[in-house]
Amino acid sequence: MAAMCAAPTLMLEAAPALVAGVHDCVWLTEDGEIERLPHRAAARRLESGGPVYLLHAPATAARIGGGKPSRAFDLLELFAFAAPARFCVPTPRGLAEALQLPIPQSLEDQAILLPRAAQRLLKHLMATADRDPKARRTAFAMVRGGWTWGPAVLAALGEDSEEAALRAPVSGLDVWKDLPEWQDEAPPPPPGDRGVDEAEARMRLSQLLGEGAEARPSQSDYASAVSAVFQPRREEGAPTVVLAEAGTGVGKTLGYIAPASVWAEKNEGPVWLSTYTRNLQHQIDAELDRLFPNAQEKEKRVVLRKGRENYLCLLNMEETARGVAVSAADAVPLGLLARWVGATRDGDMTGGDFPAWLVDLTGGRRIAGLTDRRGECIYTACAHYSRCFIEHSTRRARRADLVVANHALVMVQAARGALDLGGRTTRLVFDEGHHVFDAADSAFSAHLSGMETAELRRWLRGSEGSGRNRARGLKARCEDLLGEEDNRRHLDALLYAAAGLPGDGWHTRLADGRGTGPVEQFLAAVRGQVYARSLDAKGPFGLEVETNDPAPDLVAAAEAAGTLFQSLGKAATDLRNGMLARLSEEAEELESAEKARIDQICRSLQHRVIDYAAAAVNMTKSLDGATPDSFVDWFDVDRIDGRDLDVGMRRHWIDPTFPFAETVLVNSHGTLLTSATLTDGSGDAEADWKSAERRAGTDFLPAAPIRARVPSPFDYPANTKVLIVTDVNRNDVAQVAAAYRALFQASGGGALGLFTAIARLRAVYSRIAEDLESEGIDLLAQHVDALNLPTLIDMFRAEPHSCLLGTDAIRDGVDVPGDSLRLIVFDRVPWPRPTILHKARRAHFGGKEYDDALTRLKLKQAFGRLIRRATDRGVFVLLDSRMPSRLLGAFPDGVAVERIGLKQAVETVAGFLSPDTP
């Protein structure tokens, strides 16, 4: 955008600018005067109602404790409009970098930047107005909704006044009309089965790296080892499985892309590359630019797939946009989303080209309402079907060479028979393979809860007169496809049974112990037993109790609920079978679109109603008998800050890799599970591999997996240190906070603080944020800042002098190379939480050794965040003197582990991370 500087200066509305720090704020007056204000004074000025320039209004208001302005010139809104689907770190520094403006160093500089950045963005709009006619239409709609930026944007787009917006047609958010349409093609042929040998894998890797690339023997060895996955399968039900541990820096992504891409080309079939985190999904997608530097070719041969709930639904967008005439307040956020829709690559609203901070600006509920998270798609009956992002992605995946997916999608699709495992898809790669156990645990569990069953009722019966736009029940989605009168009776029976599921207001009724209908009455009895037997019923956190010895009224309620689910399952099965019969009996009469809709509805009935009802019947029956040996059941009340969110009964596999192996592994021809942390480092190499195989599900296969380990090329002993601080009382928040403050100051930022409890995280933040800011260190915090986690990580990555506090669960999502992450501080040893589920697994998998293995893996994964490049240096600090020596195998061989006091630890961090340190 720097090239737009030659455009004439645009007149901005005279208004102050505000930048909020942790301790105070900088207020730049309309006349250019700088003032320092305490938060409360700044909040009062905002509440006065005058317009003000700022960056990220929700976060600014949260930081100063209120004062959300009625008229804010939010620079992020203007950026999202002028540069849709473009990345920008939502900080003054990030905005300056995106616009190629001088980087602000102080709060004063940041305040001065805001109106300058506005000028730059408006000049860009002025220069591109002729090439972007959709911008004017969308701006008109937003101006009608009272957009603060409206007059300036209209002027930049060549409109003289706001009256033009009022005279313009009501449309302007209907960007779906401008999207290209796709067309169906003949089904692709089945893939071949020509193998990839080691030499081919090495050769393709060399081509990916390019001429003159630094020789990396370990990466070539890795590509060679994993190529075994791409050899022909020798026996049905006996896939070739490779467990490959590749140390950080090996370059495993390109290492497995090499043989995978060769196999896809030779056999004209897709290889699915699966990850656990969205972050890595997009990293792999970026790496594939090496394989397909031509964007158009990559568009055909690479597809990034996620679940349907991640993508924009154009029908939801249309229905919401129609309501703007009634609710003008939605015009601005919908206008920003419309701008993104016109520029997005694939409609993915959880990553890619969708800025994470746009969720904060437009509202998380509004975003969720625009995706198909409720499964209400009407498929070919939708007017937008031929433009649908989801359907386009699904069809492209059938012809792609490489499909970049995630573990949850792969497992769910395989379980539902939608992945075509063993047909078109025969080869799978699970990167972040250490998370396969967790992903399987989620995919193959069952939850009979208020939220789940209320959602099922809504899917079946619609909104039942609540006045919401999205009110399509099953009848509205399939009534024109029923055919025989019997099917109408089956549908009526299903909808009648669904009336026994929880309806609107179930939260309140359960809390009052007066559930309506058999399922609510069962859940009310569950809630009563949880509160009666819990040891901390008055605490702020969730509660859980075992299901043994249930009260008689609970058993009776479970029996009634089970009877209802039997009725649901039977009616759904009859309806599904009746509709499937139409596909065979009326094959010549049905249109292709009708056949596709019938097939999709039948699939949905199977997994949403029939399978769920069967699981619910089994769970409720077990209360009067016994839980099957392979499962563990419990009752729980999910809470936040002492407020009930959900109530239910849970059932999990004790070993979820069994259904994973039976559903996914057995049906593949070859599968790679790879990670830097497959083994936990107990000191016994054979035991470590056995443990890794158990967590991967290969114990349930007829043949043992192939093991491969390629060590990291990094010099960990020279570039890292591990410090265990011995004189900080981990139960004294003041001492823990003082330790974090001193260590973060010693590193000068670039620090990640990990906590095993949210309450301690918040307490530490409140004690140290102001002191760090006074030294130029910005402290970001999960569960504190009014920013979503992806945005916080983007900000942390972009600013080397910032620090981030988060729970230990975020460690896999933080991939920050270089100086931006040079210190990790753990508040205590991350032992597994002592839940009912963990208790059952601990007994099944080996007791104390199981706890140790899980803890070593957490430490190993966290340590692995420190060094991402050969030039990185880092220190890992644990503020827990009770760290047992048997866990030290989590750290690489040769790394010095020192048990020292805090004073010495601070000196060591400062000295080791000093730029002058050799």
Structural account:
The protein is an alpha/beta fold. The chain contains 36 helices and 23 strands. α33 (789-798) links the parallel β19 (778-781) and β20 (802-807). α6 (133-144) packs antiparallel against α15, α9 (198-209) crosses α10 and α31 (733-747) runs parallel beside α36 (902-912). It is globular, with a radius of gyration of 29 Å. The chain starts with 16 loop residues before the first strand and ends in a 6-residue tail after the last helix.
Return residue spans where pLDDT drops below 50 for at least 5 consecutive residues. 1-8
First-to-last CA distance: 40 Å
Beta-strand residue fraction: 5-15%
Query: Which outline best applies?
Result: globular
Helix content: 40-55%
**Helix segment count?**
36
Strand order of the largest sheet: 8-9-7-10-15-6-16
- The count of DSSP E runs of length 2 or more, i.e. the number of strands, is 23
SSE order and pairing:
Blueprint (H helix, E strand, L loop, with lengths): L16 E4 L3 E5 L5 E5 H9 L4 E3 L2 H8 L7 E3 H8 L9 H8 L7 H22 L4 H12 L5 H7 L6 H5 L30 H12 L7 H10 L13 E7 L5 H16 L3 E5 L2 H10 L7 H7 E3 L9 H9 L8 H11 L15 H6 L1 H6 L19 H11 L2 E5 H9 L11 E4 L5 H8 L2 E4 H12 L12 H5 L6 H14 L7 H6 L6 H16 L9 E4 L5 H34 L6 H31 L8 E10 L2 E11 L3 H9 L4 E6 L9 H12 L9 E5 L5 H4 E6 L7 H15 L3 E5 L2 H17 L3 E4 L7 H10 L3 E6 L15 E4 L9 H10 L2 H16 L10 E5 L18 E4 L1 H11 L6
Parallel strand pairs: 4-5, 6-15, 6-16, 7-9, 7-10, 8-9, 10-15, 17-22, 17-23, 18-20, 18-21, 19-20, 21-22
Antiparallel strand pairs: 1-2, 2-3, 11-14, 12-13, 13-14
Helix pairs in contact: 3-5, 3-15, 4-5, 5-7, 6-7, 6-15, 9-10, 9-11, 10-11, 19-20, 23-26, 25-26, 26-27, 31-32, 31-36
